[in-house]
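Fig. S4 source data, part A: sequence.
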Amino acid sequence: MKRKLRRKKKLKLKANIAKEAIDKATTNAEVGQAKTNGTTEVTSVNPEALVKSVAKKAIEDKLAEQLKAIANTPDATDEEKKAAANLAKQLAEVAKKAIDAARENADVKKLQDDSKVGIEEAVPFVEDKPNARKAIDAEVKVKKEAIDARTDISDKVKELLKAEVDEIAAQAKKAIDAASSVDEINKIEEAKKSEIKAVEEVRVPAEKVIVADPTNLTDEEKVKVLAAIKSVNPDAKEITQDAKGNVIVITANGHKQVISVAQVTKTEVDLAKENAGNVVNTPVAKTAVADVTKLTEAEKQEIIAKVKLVNRSNSSYR
């Protein structure tokens, strides 16, 4: 109530001053100028609705522009974009309410300008994808160091294994780039980190087990599948099998990996297919050996590594 009274007194004072100026004017030009000045002074005390509407429209336009920029922010996840958009909307609403309550044009203009700056600064805090890439790089570093520390394989085999690790990392980052949600990114990160850890740790037999129906293994077929996987993973800490025949391998360092029935089985029909259903690719680069009838351990390791490298996309190889 007191504010209204003060504003009325101020309006009356400015109106009286304007009237006095008009009364003192001696020419039409002076009258026009006095009228303009008086109108400006009175309006500054009680902004017209149009002034406020224009200011609020400017804020809404800035918000729409910023929401579009937020939606197109590179690398930002849906969650990061939503957080930034909510902040921009909140700032816009606060500004518009403040404009409604403003009593002078100068205040309206300042609120409009300040809010536009604040809205423009509401941008996504991009961290999910970069952090996932860093996690992949960290896993690669650890794996490569472990490979380099091995004394049971040659330098050539080490390079091939590290190339396999690099390929998995590249696939991981490509998938992360395409992901839109935090949940997707987390799943990709964990799956690919697990895959990197598994390089040269969990092996899948090259020769698949013949079964009647891969979707419904008999007890005898399950035993054969389990035996085949155990034969190529002699150093595993634990190897178990679920009711469907999928095999769970836990390596000596605690890494856990599931080998599905589809990865290690084939049917009689598959025998007529190329590579007898085993889907094996042959390396273009041959391995130089001293005696093809008597391979050394290092030569065997290099051949195995090369074959595995060119069969990365096949489910039969890991």
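Fig. S4 source data, part B ends here. The beta strands are 209-210, 238-241, 247-250, 256-259, 265-266.
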